[in-house]
Amino acid sequence: MSAGPAVRPAGDAAMLVAFGTAIDDAVFARVLALDAALSADPPPGVVETVPAYASLLVHYDPLRTRPDELQRALLDAAAQARPQPLTGREHRVPVCHAPEFAPDLPAVAEQAGLTERQVIAAHGAADYRVYMYGFAPGYAYLGGVPRALRLPRKPEPVRGVPAGAVMIAGAQALVTTLTMPSGWWVIGRSPARLLDLAAQRPSPFDPGDRVRFVAVDRAEFDRLAAA
User: How far is CA 23 from the centre of its chain?
Assistant: First the structure.
């Protein structure tokens, strides 16, 4: 039987419900189960829930509930929630590995002891899971990077990483939505538009969804980007 979660304050208007410390589907299923339970029947004062890899952040109105009352309610809800298999929708995201889009591909290949073609093949064969959003709008953090490609972050971040950059670091992968600095390894670029702030649904992924990267050549990248 799984151990109960740890519930602790996160500031003066939020509680963090932590189920573990690792990127693990079984742990994440418990996070989503509690998230669904609170969405269906929120305790008094709950304003918003934010799932992450192994925890759920619960924002609440301190004028409508007390921390000790909410803590008990969250523990009760977690005990009753029933994790379900992680199915989710599958998204196919095109990625071009042309040299101008993949400045770190040679370094990744060298550190992994692979050829660049083998890195591309391994990256494209993996099945990625959407675990959380964070850091910047539309930044969907994915787990599932093949072990052969799990490199630590760069010693120093690089400025000006463009939107659409397909990056890896450790067991995580990410497609950037804004031009920002990053210490992750850039091995391609996607023409997919993964953030539209004017849309009713700004980002296409939900936590629990799956992502597959599909390699395309430069001509197909240009065609998709134009469309």
Answer: 11
For the entire predicted model, the pTM comes to 0.88
Asked if residue 47 and residue 23 are part of one domain, the reply reads: yes
| Distance of alpha carbon 69 from alpha carbon 53, whole angstroms | 25
Domain count, the chain: 2
Has residue 136 been placed in a domain? yes
Separation of alpha carbons 95 and 215, rounded Å: 5
Per-residue pLDDT of the chain (227 residues; tens, 9 = 90+): 456 799 999 999 999 999 998 889 999 999 999 999 999 999 999 999 999 999 999 999 999 999 999 999 999 999 999 998 888 899 999 999 999 999 999 999 999 999 999 999 999 999 999 999 999 999 999 999 999 999 999 999 999 999 999 999 999 999 999 999 999 999 999 999 999 988 888 999 999 999 999 999 999 999 999 98
- Residue 17, domain extent: 6-80
Which residues, in sequence order, are CB contacts of 131 under 8 Å at separation 6+? Answer: 23, 28, 51, 52, 53, 141, 142, 143, 207
- Please check whether residues 117 and 178 belong to one and the same domain: yes
- Tell me how far apart the alpha carbons of residues 99 and 65 are, in angstroms, rounded to a whole number: 55
- The answer to whether residues 112 and 199 belong to one domain is yes
Please give the backbone phi and psi of residue 68, each rounded to the nearest 5 degrees, phi first.
-65, -35
Same domain, 162 and 61: no
Phi-psi domain of 47 (left: phi exceeds 0; alpha: psi -120 through 50; beta: other)? alpha
Instruction: Flag whether 1 is in a domain.
Output: no
Q: Are residues 75 and 145 in the same domain?
A: no
